[in-house]
Each structure stands twice: as C-alpha cells, then as structure tokens.
Amino acid sequence: MSGTKSPSRKAPATEGKWPVWKLAILLYPATALTVAINLFLAGLILHSAGFGAIEPVPAILWSIPLGVPASWLAGCWVRGLMDEADD
After folding, report:
1. 16-64 confidence digits (pLDDT tens)
2. DSSP state, 2?
3. How confident is the model at residue 87 (pLDDT cuts 50, 70, 90)?
4. Which of 11, 28, 47, 86 could pair covalently with 15 via S-S, beta carbons 3.0-4.6 A apart?
C-alpha cells in the first residue's frame, strides 16, 4: 500500500433532524417557568376581580405538570421553524 487514504465523507453538522421530544426536553425549563409566571399573573388578575390570589409557590408547583404540554407545543413550533429554515 502506498499509504494514501481514501477521503472519508463527513456528515455536515446540520444533517439529521432534531426530534420534537428532544426539543421539548431542551425547552422544558423555559416553558415551565413561563407557565409559572403566567399562572401567577393570572392569579393577580383574578384577585383584582374578587377571587383568591395564586401565590408564587403554588404557581411553580402547578407549572411542573403543566409545563409538559407547553414544552411539547414549543418543541413542535421550533421544529416547524427549523423545517421552514431548511427549505
């Protein structure tokens, strides 16, 4: 053998799609925090209308399970933006 190598094909860094579930896991902390802030602010609006206020700790606790569908929707949205950018 002469010691020469055949050129190896490297995949570009952008090859392959990120699945929605990976994007949702990545976006979960931000979406759960956003849900907590929105619940707290909705509680303040309801308090001004005469209902009981939602305190920050219950808003954070409620945002843990409610952040899952929010992060899934955010992942679908980001996946759509990535697909649109690829075209």
Report:
1. 789 999 999 999 999 999 999 999 999 999 999 999 889 999 999 999 9
2. -
3. confident
4. 11
Residue 60 CB neighbour total at 10 angstroms: 16
- Outline where the chain has alpha helix (H): 20-48, 56-86
Q: Of 77, 84, 65, whose CA–CA distance to 23 is shortest?
A: 77
**Which of 55, 38, 35, 54 has the alpha carbon at shortest distance from 46?**
54
| Length of the chain, in residues | 87
Structure tokens at 2: 């002469």
